[in-house]
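Structure record:
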Amino acid sequence: MAHSAVPIVPRWPGAAAAALVLLLTFGTLGAVAWRAEWAGGLAAADWAAIRFTVLQAFLSAAISVILAIPVARALARRRFFGRDLLITLLGAPFLLPVIVAVFGLLAVFGRNGVFNGLMEWLGLGPVSIFGLQGVLLANVFFNLPLAIRLILQGWLSIPAERFRLVATLNAPVGRLLEWPMLRSVVPATFLVIFLICLTSFAVALTMGGGPRATTVELAIYQAVRFEFDLGKAALLASVQFALCVSAAILAMRITSEAPSGRGLDRTVQRWDKARVSVDSLWIIAAALFLLVPLAMVVLRGLPGLMDMPVSIWAAALRSVLVAIGAATLCVAMALALAVRGGFLVAVIGVLPLAASGLVVGTGAFLIVFPYIRPADVALLVTLLVNATLALPFALRAIAPAAAQVREDYGRLGASLGMSGWSWLRLVVLPRMRRPLGFAAGLAAALSMGDLGVVTLFAGQSEETLPLAMYRLMGAYRMETAASAALLLLGLSLALFWICDRWGRGNADF
């Protein structure tokens, strides 16, 4: 009989997953550093791109957090019909393909959009959203829901007994409860969004406005695709990696739990509610800002959905296959690392966050270019990079469940002589089906909407649906692009729903 937890699964799957992640992060970074033209230094345009990258990330994070605070407070204080559904929908932009969201924003705020139509009706001139303002608008659209969810969790973590005590003492809720929570939650939320905005390549590619609105990643793309200056691209990729690592380290160092204390899990009753109109205004404004662009995608894309050219359907098939492959590989790596456990999980889970997808793609391009035509391995490299970049999110869902299974059944399995595949099939998988399904759906949805590394490798015959849609928009074929956007949105949500629904189903094998 086992008296302590013993390893009953082989260690090589976890080691293989770790090796692949290290190869795709440090290996590609090594190729970038080796090829970088350090002696030439950075030109004035490169420094301008660095400044713009940091500026847009800082402003995007600041605006997202500032707007999220009153919305999260209103959601924490109010109970209304459809509240849970609204909070769920607030997570949709995270799963939404970037290029689809950009199309929806253009339908609302673009030159021929609803907003400019209203401005013209009022006798005012049109407003251009290309440039810094467009990048900020798109980044806030993506990251405002994330900020709301993170800050709302902080509010909901304050025990009901604290509010009851403050109300009994007739003391200020904001100074005694809300402000300490915000001091703990807001800095980490700001830095997480800042890190995300540093790597918002697709946003800068579609919403940028020329040299004054060029990010480092966009400069890398231009150096590879238009100038074919691989040395300059490698140097810029090194700079981008340094920016991401700095932001990731800072975010990890200041991340802390809100000092809320423990409670009895009672329903929170708020006696400090402002007028209903104030909270309602914030909730309605946030819902309109986030949901109207999605509605415009559906309205504009539906008429021509069945009349799209064959090339779009072929690109959609390639995207689905890549997404399924990336999700399968991502979940397999996450499961191997989570089952093994230990410090390795924490380290490997952080590495992809510090690595930009375009930096990894640049390194992979430098590795394969002397030997293979990059277009020949475009889909394979895209699959590998997408699986690796989704790994931290998958690990976050899978690792706690794996640790619980190991704690509850590890000694029993060892005493019964279970190991390897039998332990995985009979014990681990049935009890981890829900997080596995969620992680697979998330990885598939993120891969479906990727418009990063594929832009460096793919030609016309290797393009995925996001890349095909971007090229349609560049050619001003907006009707076809609208239908492609709706198709991409439907496929992304369908893949996530199928995987998540499988995870929520009967766990018997």
Observations:
- The radius of gyration is 24 Å.
- The chain has 22 helices and no strands.
